[in-house]
């Protein structure tokens, strides 16, 4: 109980020192303007020995405008100006903030912060990285940090990624690829059946400090050819089987046709009887076909063809010369 009373008296005396004793409210201390992912946050510490019930008011300005009202009568020790709907914040603007403490109707003097140029000074947060392994390659997909105003690709058109990757078992042998513009990016100089870990940072031309590094994510590669190999083998097996079927069909054509139309079922003499007159008739047919009528037909055809071509060529020549 006595401790409580003692603390109460201490607080009272502190409050009276901060407000009454010196005749005015002591100003906040350690006032600084910061930016993370393009927000604009003013932070401060309470006046020394101040009571905990102090209220604060904040204002902001650019390097070329007067101060405008920010947050009024807040009890927190920070405020984010990008949350003010009436404030237009430019990605490239230079900003100042100021804050004063208030007790009742009394106010401290204003304390001005440092200035910051948003795109140059903001701290870029870490990108979010996910990996997809395919055979002996790993696809790295990068999600840019979300900005309070605008988007990373709008503010930093020439932003690039710096990918660091290493075998999980050999973190000391890390490799870097910087200046990467593609997203997703494929790592393809990897060993099969190996666990790799990846970390990504964003570099911008305008902001000298690279982003916070991403979290480390790891993924295992599989067999180098597996992806292309399996379907290729399956189609190879199918085409070999199809070719084998064709070969079998050709080689055993006679046997197959024998099975389908069994010749040997007929007695030998009956077969001879059937075949002999048939052969004769075929020979007769052949002779008649190979005779002069066919050659005569060929001659006629070639003659007709010659004439046609000759006439055509002449006609074209004539037409061409007429046109000239
Ligand atoms: C802030 O607090 C002061 C003192 O209590 C009061 O006079 C003023 O009206 C308040 N302002 C707003 C915008 O609430
Ligand atoms: C803004 O801050 C920088 C360094 O923090 C300082 O050099 C510069 O003078 C400041 N600009 C103004 C207009 O106060
Ligand atoms: C990264 O993205 C994944 C999937 O979208 C999400 O689950 C995770 O919370 C994100 N991590 C961070 C740090 O944003
Ligand atoms: C890329 O990141 C690695 C690890 O953070 C760093 O050592 C390297 O200097 C960076 N390279 C560039 C060009 O930023």
TrEMBL record:
<dbReference type="Pfam" id="PF01108">
    <property type="entry name" value="Tissue_fac"/>
</dbReference>
<keyword id="KW-1133">Transmembrane helix</keyword>
<feature type="transmembrane region" description="Helical">
    <location>
        <begin position="229"/>
        <end position="252"/>
    </location>
</feature>
<keyword id="KW-0675">Receptor</keyword>
<keyword id="KW-0812">Transmembrane</keyword>
<dbReference type="InterPro" id="IPR003961">
    <property type="entry name" value="FN3_dom"/>
</dbReference>
<feature type="signal peptide">
    <location>
        <begin position="1"/>
        <end position="18"/>
    </location>
</feature>
<dbReference type="InterPro" id="IPR015373">
    <property type="entry name" value="Interferon/interleukin_rcp_dom"/>
</dbReference>
<feature type="domain" description="Fibronectin type-III">
    <location>
        <begin position="123"/>
        <end position="225"/>
    </location>
</feature>
<dbReference type="Pfam" id="PF09294">
    <property type="entry name" value="Interfer-bind"/>
</dbReference>
<keyword id="KW-0732">Signal</keyword>
<dbReference type="InterPro" id="IPR050650">
    <property type="entry name" value="Type-II_Cytokine-TF_Rcpt"/>
</dbReference>
<dbReference type="GO" id="GO:0005886">
    <property type="term" value="C:plasma membrane"/>
</dbReference>
<keyword id="KW-0472">Membrane</keyword>
<dbReference type="GO" id="GO:0004896">
    <property type="term" value="F:cytokine receptor activity"/>
</dbReference>
<feature type="domain" description="Fibronectin type-III">
    <location>
        <begin position="27"/>
        <end position="121"/>
    </location>
</feature>
<protein>
    <submittedName>
        <fullName>Interleukin-10 receptor subunit beta-like</fullName>
    </submittedName>
</protein>
């Amino acid at each position: 109980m006595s401790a409580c009373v003692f603390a109460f008296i201490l607080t009272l005396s502190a409050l009276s020192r901060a407000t009454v004793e010196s005749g005015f409210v002591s100003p906040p201390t350690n006032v600084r303007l910061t930016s993370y992912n393009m927000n604009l946050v003013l932070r401060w510490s309470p006046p020394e020995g101040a009571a905990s019930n102090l209220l604060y008011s904040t204002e902001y300005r650019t390097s070329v405008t007067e101060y405008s009202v920010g947050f009024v009568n807040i009890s927190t020790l920070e405020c984010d100006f990008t949350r003010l709907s009436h404030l237009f914040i430019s990605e490239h603007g230079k900003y100042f903030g100021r804050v004063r403490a208030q007790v009742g109707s009394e106010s401290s003097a204003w304390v001005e912060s440092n200035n910051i140029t948003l795109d140059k000074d903001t701290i870029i947060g870490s990108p979010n990285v996910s990996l997809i392994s395919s055979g002996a390659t790993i696809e790295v997909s990068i999600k840019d940090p979300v900005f309070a105003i605008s988007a990373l690709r709008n503010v930093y058109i020439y932003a690039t990624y710096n990918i660091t990757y290493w075998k999980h078992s050999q973190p000391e042998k890390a490799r870097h690829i910087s200046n990467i513009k593609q997203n997703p990016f494929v790592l393809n100089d990897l060993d099969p059946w190996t666990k790799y870990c990846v970390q990504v940072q964003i570099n911008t031309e305008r902001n000298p400090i690279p982003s916070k590094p991403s979290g480390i994510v790891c993924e295992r590669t599989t067999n180098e050819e597996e992806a292309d190999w399996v379907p290729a083998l399956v189609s190879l097996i199918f085409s070999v089987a199809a070719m084998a079927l064709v070969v079998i069909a050709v080689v055993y054509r006679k046997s197959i046709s024998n099975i389908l139309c069994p010749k040997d079922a007929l007695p030998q003499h009956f077969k001879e009887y059937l075949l002999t007159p048939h052969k004769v008739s075929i020979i007769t047919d052949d002779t008649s076909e190979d005779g002069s009528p066919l050659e005569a037909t060929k001659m006629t055809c070639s003659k007709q063809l010659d004439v046609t071509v000759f006439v055509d060529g002449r006609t074209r020549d004539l037409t061409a010369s007429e046109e000239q």
